[in-house]
Amino acid sequence: MKLRCDRRSVLKGMLGGSAVYVGLPMLDVFLNTNGTAFANGAPLPVRFGTYFWGLGLTDTPAGGTRWVPTKVGPGYDLMPELEALAAVKEKVSVFSGFRAIGDGRANLVHWTGHASILSGVAPATATRFDAASFDTKVADAIGTSTRFKSIDIDASVSRQPVSYSTRTGATFASPDSTPLALYTRLFGPDFQDPNSDDWKPNPAIMLRQSVLSAVTEQRRELMKGLGRDDQLKMDQYFSSVRDMENQLAVQLQKPEKREACVLPQAPKDPARISSVDVVNSNTKVMAKLLAMGLACNQSRVFTFVHTSGASETYLPGQSKIYHQITHDEPTDARLGYQPETSKLANEVMKGLGTFLAELDAIKEGEGTLLDNAIVLAFSDTGYAKIHAIENIPMFLAGRAGGRHKAGQHIAGKGAPVTRVSLTAMQLAGAPVGEFGVGSMKTSNPIGEVIA
Amino acid sequence: MNSIGRAGIALAAFAAPCVAMAAWTKAYVVEWNEPAIYYGAKAGVIDPGTDCPQGTNPEIDWVKVLMEAGYTREEAEWLRNPANPTRSPVHGQNQMAFRGKARANVYVNPTSTPDPGLVGVSGTLAEGLDLDGNAKTGFTSPDGEKGIDNNFYKTVGCWKTYRGPRRLSSGALQFNDSMRNGAWTTLIVVAGQGDDPMNDKDVNVGFYLSDDKMVKDGNGNIAPDYTFSIKPHARYEAIFPARIKNGVITSTKAVSGVLREPAYWRDLELERAQIKLTMKADGSLSGYVGGYRPWEHVYKGWVNARGPVIEALTWVQLPGVYYALRRNADYSPSGAKGEKTHISYALRVDALPAFVMSPDASQQVAAVASYKSLAPAETGRVSGLFPQVVDGIFIDPKAKQQAGPNAVITPPENIAKAKE
User: Fold this and answer.
1) CB distance B181–A106 less than 8 Å?
2) pLDDT-above-90 percentage for chain B
3) I want to staple A119 with a disulfide (CB 3.0 to 4.6 A). Which of A8, A129, A262, B166 is the partner?
4) Does residue A396 contact residue A449 with C-beta atoms inside 8 Å?
5) Distance CA B32, CA B172 (A)
């Protein structure tokens, strides 16, 4: 029998009583001549992520703004608080004027905004979402062939780790909240270098998978004797077990070679204080690790928190935190905005600029990792002084492998934030046609930015 | 009478109280309401103006305040340090409460500390109503009317949360944004017995709550002409006998009533309440609801909203607010010689035309009447913004260290060394 020879080819065998799948080495012949896709025409993988920061950007009730471009469409003007994005401007679309719509539910401060963006519904209580966050849908669609379905990162140095990724609405992901923790997850003992010439399946992983396989057999036997409803319940219960089996199976395959993948050095953790310089430094280190983790195909989906909704960050040496300043600083009559708030917003946006620059620094084919990614960056409020959930700043960064017509400013004019969420999902390649509930239910992505 | 007829009568009895139908009615939904704060500057919030010649009350040096309360500089600076784990980024530094005599909690014992002061309005103009019928007392309105009683404004008018151009003070923005996003809805029904709604000597004006939420248009403005049903409420209701002259509705008799207020303390409990509302050519309604309100409830509203947060964000010392409200109180329900437990106040109201239905939504209201008899009894009122707030501070039972008179306040060694 002739052996199939492509990037998905595997050698199937037994080792130590366990079945193992050994992939063929990734050869140049698997890529096309331009390095833009695999040889069979399959595109390079699109990565998807969310990037969250707290307290929005500077707005004023009188209509002034420090971030909404005056020009709509391509070639938008770089407003003061967008200057940190200058280097990647052509890869970033700006979405202004979108709002969370509560349908009668009260605005739960520092919660309703991002809960609406992520889950499609204004939540009833300020401790949970009323639906799963949509990054999990994307992970289910594009994240099953990597070691980690999703990587959850919190760079905020908050007192409690922060993540807004949830499958149930009630419990949230446990993020890696230090650079060392992230490094260990990505490149620790279980990391398999895709470029290594002496790759061998990890016996520890094989053992773990064999244990789960035994569980699988037991589950099958158990399921035979159950009624339909109980079978459904058991199926839900074991879905996480199956996820783990799949992830382990991935690790038992010889990974595809990744030219951009270079094993980084283990970082040192920064001081556990949440001043904005420390948070931005943390963001840079963790973005670099994440970027390499994506380049090394450890995951295709991530969630990243720069600062929490009621951000704890502050300028070093100051006794007032950013959150307090957004509320207590009066609008300067001459300038027309809150100058200290704007100063801190600029600092916070440097975090996003740095984050995107790290993704853009990884060469991949003829472009960069950012060209093959789509990142939804967003906040929890519009005008933070009053916790407004209108005009919440949202950005789509990265070209999504060419699907995103980037570099535009889209004025939402009161449209629901879920339109941007749906657009992000579709650009990431998730088969989702509709998103949201009630007034935020939409099947209408923003066509202007979709190629 | 058959059973269907009897059932119909029973349903109608629930739908609306038994009152005579008015000759005409007009109905509105309140799209904005805020304390009537006359703004005397040209622009900005903190800038000097005729109302507040020195501008708003300035930002407070909390380290200095804490040291004056007996804390050492090191303790005071550590309490205000964002790296201090006892200082919550959301709920503030609870130890701020304990700066009274013998470190008493100044939020619940404001007189345990000397009056730190709250600069009030020194201008002569104010918005509102002549509540006591005495043109010789009070402010002058911007259009020249004498006797405007608004000591609430006199007290808080230079507090930056209240101060600002119309619809632009931070407090008004915050609470109206909440209302407009569905936190509550207030309806106004005007009903008259004459044949000219612009000139009618026999009018009643009712203020009611609704569970139906306002709808925003594409620009974020409240859309007019939507339909709302009255929600009978045991407390929030006020009915004003009035007259209309050239479209201006004024009270003919002072009443007692309670409105839902755009503030942390939700009850606007008014004694000797009056209205002055103008029916505008575009169909909208604007003006004032005024009366005397219990001043201590205003203070408690701010305390229960978490004293340390309010003080830090709004640039006041809450004991100063307590002293100022007490000092400016100008009404006693028990008579002229009684304790002044109330302070004159006016709420500025903007309302849009709407359709207002009976509580069961079966018919448009055709009169102004009380629906209190249809309201369920109130149970389990939430006294403040957060149930976890006790004596003005947010209690986290999981916290490693609780604030209090005897709390040990020692910065970590590395912080102390870094300072050296």
Assistant:
1) yes
2) 80
3) A129
4) yes
5) 9
Q: Is the pLDDT of residue A370 over 90?
A: yes
CA distance B4 to A346: 70
* pTM of structure: 0.81
B80 and A319: CB-CB below 8 Å? yes
Q: Does A271 touch chain B (CB under 8 A)?
A: no
Look at A33-42, B158-167, B261-270 and tell me which has the smallest mean pLDDT. A33-42
Phi-psi category of residue B39: left, alpha or beta, with phi > 0 → left and psi -120 to 50 → alpha = beta
Q: Chain B: nearest CA to A439, how far in angstroms?
A: 11
Are A86 and A357 in contact, with CB atoms under 8 Å apart?
no
Q: What is the average pLDDT score of chain B?
A: 91
DSSP string, A246-314: HHHHHHTSPPPP-TT--PPPPPPP--S--BHHHHHHHHHHHHHHHHHHHHTTSBSEEEEESS-TT---B
ipTM of this predicted structure:
0.80
Partner B contacted by A34 (CB < 8 A): no
**Domain segments of chain B: what residues?**
20-57+118-372+379-385
What length is written for chain A? 451
Q: Are A182 and A333 in contact (CB under 8 A)?
A: no
What average pLDDT does this structure show over A288-303? 93
CA distance A133 to A151: 14
Q: Alpha-carbon distance A312 to A303, whole Å?
A: 19
Question: Which tokens belong to A133?
Answer: 């966050």
pLDDT of residue B386: 74
Which residues of B are less than 8 Å from A321 in CB distance?
Answer: 82, 89
Length of chain B equals: 420
Dihedral of CA A202/A204/A207/A209: which sign?
negative
| A136: three-class secondary structure by DSSP | helix
Q: pLDDT category, A19, cuts 50, 70, 90? A: very low
Give the contacts of B202 (CB within 8 A, at least 6 positions apart).
B192, B193, B194, B243
Task: Identify the residue whose tokens are 């979108």.
Answer: A98
What is the rounded (10 degree) CA torsion for A281, A283, A284, A286?
Answer: 120
Residue from A274, A277, A313, A319 to probe the interface with B (highest B Cβ count within 10 Å): A319
pLDDT exceeds 60 at position B404? yes
**Count of alpha carbons within 13 angstroms of residue A306, beta-carbon side:** 31
Contact flag A387-B82 (C-beta cutoff 8 Å): no
Give the end-to-end CA distance of chain A in Å, rounded to a whole number.
43
B26 or A145, which is more confident? B26
Q: Which residues pair with B240 in a beta bridge?
A: B205
Tokens of B40: 């005397």
| CA–CA dist A422, B36 (Å, integer) | 44
- How would you classify the pairing of strands A92-96 and A394-397? antiparallel
Residue with tokens 């575009």: B282
pLDDT of residue B32: 98
Residues B49-98 have pLDDT tens digits of 999 999 999 999 999 999 999 999 999 999 999 989 899 888 999 999 99
Amino acid, single-letter form, for residue B258: V
pLDDT at A18: 43
Three-state DSSP state, B190:
strand
Q: Is residue A181 packed enough to be buried (19+ CB in 10 Å), middle (13-18) or exposed (0-12)?
A: middle
Element (DSSP H or E) covering residue B391? none
A306 in contact with B, Cβ within 8 Å: no
